[in-house]
Amino acid sequence: MTRTAETPPTFFAPVDTSPAVQLVRLVQGYEVTQIVATVARLGLADRLVEQPKSSAELAEATGADPEGLARLLRAAATVGLVTELEADHFELTPVGACLAADAQPASLRDFAVALASPGQWLPCGRLFDAVMSGHPSTALALGTEIWDYYRNNPEEGAVFARAMGGLSASVSTEVAAHYNAARFTRIVDVGGSQGTLLAGLLKAAPQATGVLFDRPEVIAEARPVITARGLAERMELVSGDFFTEVPAGGDLYVLKSVLHDWNDTDVLRILANCHRAAQPGSMLLLVEGLKPTEPGPSPIHLINLLMFIQVKGRERTREEHQALLEAAGYRLERVLTPSTGLYHPWSLLEARRI
Ligand SMILES: C[S@@+](CC[C@H](N)C(=O)[O-])C[C@H]1O[C@@H](n2cnc3c(N)ncnc32)[C@H](O)[C@@H]1O
Predict the structure, then answer these.
(1) Looking at residue 187, what is its pLDDT?
(2) 343: Cβ below 6 Å to ligand 1?
(3) Domains recognised in the chain with CATH numbers
């Protein structure tokens, strides 16, 4: 049984402060990311989920420095992850509980850790360089492109893959609920990471089998996850490079959060390989956020900036997706936006291979 307190009004909750204070708090955001990630890495949510504990108990359990952990916990209380009940005793809040391993629909622990780890954190720290040069800062910050960095740092790569799975879990449930997958017999998830979305689609399509396709190091990490989910019989795991080829014979190809990683030229190469692998009349499902066409704030603009810093990618409008699909031999037939998403609203763009 998860035991949590109400999330109290916190440091970052909307408050009536002066513009200068608001600005200072925005700048402090860099510290908040690391606070959340450190609470996540130490597994503090799991240790607090049953009952409140003192910082001394938590320091002993985690091997952390007692003074460091006490300061971390007070900072975590300031940003709303825990509440300090009495001097030095801490209880988990509903926000902090999202970091627990058994949080539903998925734990956000790996997401918190991944975004504060070098592969994401260091390129973000070079935002200025990216904006000035017009080139991603990943190679500058990490010495290599992001996917090669994760291959060379497999533990961090596995955390990132699980982080994507955590984000995909709620999307997977919604996509399965809103998209009629039951008409397909072979569903190929291209760049499918640990198969979270594919698992949701297979649940909605009991007669179908799935093909999970990703880079070799990602598929190696996915294998035990798929087996543990009891899906080894229904999901074929194939490793490769989607710039070379993708598995043939699917009647539905799925690309979630893949195209936004790439520029238009690379997107056309990926789509051309999907087209080559599929029969005329088969379907392609893109799961992406859509960039708004009207001015105004949107979480998509934050992701769009990340895609500029990290990779040569971009978020796209519905029309931009449509143009790429048509250039690759697909006809866009439907666009659904069923989800408000954790990160941003997700849209389903369904296209038919001509
Ligand atoms: C942003 S992640 C999206 C993962 C998954 N579709 C999801 O939404 O959870 C992009 C995926 O593309 C995979 N990928 C990158 N380059 C690839 C390539 N050349 N061939 C196959 N997969 C690749 C990555 O390993 C990663 O799993």
Answers:
(1) 98
(2) no
(3) 19-103 (1.10.10.10), 115-353 (3.40.50.150)
